[in-house]
């Protein structure tokens, strides 16, 4: 690599904004932001060619902290917004970020159809098994016996949502799980996901030490998958169901046709101006 190329190669800091994150000390989302900027730098993506869309929640603040195009949408609608953007701007690298509450509760229906539609975008879900921004309620991925919330003092009694299993059943073509305590591993998964042609889900286990201090123990529980990823959905389903939900790595990757509208609306300035002519 020439000296000139080395000077021109972007670094992670080039993808970070000047806004200081307001996450709580020890929040796993700091490491996710770091992994994301490292992945973008590794891929040397032009900042003006990247769009980062989010919904509502602690994790959904992330577009403000990144130096790319960003859209902070409404609760649960990040994937719908991102799908619309990708439909008219297929040239953009579209990333979607959110949490387990935003993505799997109010956004659950959009999640299912984003998986089956298989548009070329990456969905990063920071999963801390709690609604952190709204003071610690149980989320869709919370264990049924978690009884530390005032709203569910005896636990929810409801089996948790399984993101990887649902994504596989709905048709996602890339499914991975990372851990914020392993930022290098998360960076590697993000690079793979962004390069993958189709809908990619990365569930990143990201502890919330404010409302789930027991998640400090995740660093002692999380481990790598002992087997390689597969392109066989039946085999992937078996691995997901046999796993505790604490194994990390690429689970499933398969190349299937990517959906993109054939008759996209022109976004030229002249066409937009003509639409407003009275």
Number of domains as seen in the coordinates: 1
Instruction: Give me the strand/helix succession.
Output: HHEEHEHHEHEHEHEHEH
Strand order of the largest sheet: 2-1-3-4-6-5-8-7
Proportion of residues in helical segments = 25-40%
**Roughly how many Å is the radius of gyration?**
19 Å
Strand content: 15-25%
Largest sheet: 8 strands, mixed
Structural class: alpha/beta
Q: How many E strands?
A: 8
Q: Please report the distance between the alpha carbons of the first and last residues.
A: 56 Å
What is the count of DSSP helices, taking H or I runs of 4+ residues? 10
Question: Quick recap of the structure?
Answer:
The protein has helices at residues 3-8, 29-43, 78-88, 100-106, 108-117, 163-170, 183-195, 218-221, 233-242, 269-275; strands spanning 50-54, 69-72, 93-99, 121-127, 174-179, 199-205, 223-224, 247-253. The protein contains 10 helices and 8 strands.
């Amino acid at each position: 690599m020439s000296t000139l190329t080395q000077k021109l190669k972007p670094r992670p800091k080039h993808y970070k904004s000047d806004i200081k994150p307001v996450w709580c000390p020890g929040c796993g989302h700091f490491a996710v932001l770091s992994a994301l900027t490292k992945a973008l730098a590794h891929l040397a993506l032009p900042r003006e060619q990247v769009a980062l869309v989010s919904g509502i929640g602690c994790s959904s603040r992330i577009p403000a902290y990144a130096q790319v195009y960003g859209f902070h949408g409404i609760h649960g609608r990040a994937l719908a917004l991102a799908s619309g953007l990708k439909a008219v701007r297929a040239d953009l690298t579209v990333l979607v970020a959110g949490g387990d509450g935003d993505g799997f509760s109010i956004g659950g229906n959009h999640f299912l159809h984003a998986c089956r539609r298989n548009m070329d975008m990456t969905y990063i879900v920071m999963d801390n098994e709690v609604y952190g921004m709204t003071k610690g309620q149980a989320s869709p991925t919370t264990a049924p016996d978690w009884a530390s919330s005032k709203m569910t003092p005896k636990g929810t009694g409801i089996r948790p949502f399984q993101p990887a299993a649902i994504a596989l059943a709905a048709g996602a073509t890339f499914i991975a799980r990372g851990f914020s305590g392993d930022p290098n591993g998360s960076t590697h998964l993000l690079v793979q996901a962004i390069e993958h042609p189709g809908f990619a889900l990365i569930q990143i286990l990201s502890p919330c030490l404010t409302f789930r201090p027991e998640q400090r123990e995740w660093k002692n529980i999380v481990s790598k998958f002992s087997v390689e990823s597969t392109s066989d959905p039946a085999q992937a389903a078996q691995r997901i169901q046999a796993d505790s939900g604490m194994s990390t790595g690429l689970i499933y990757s398969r190349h299937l046709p990517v959906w993109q509208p054939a008759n996209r609306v022109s976004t030229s300035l002249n066409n937009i101006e003509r639409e407003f002519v009275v």
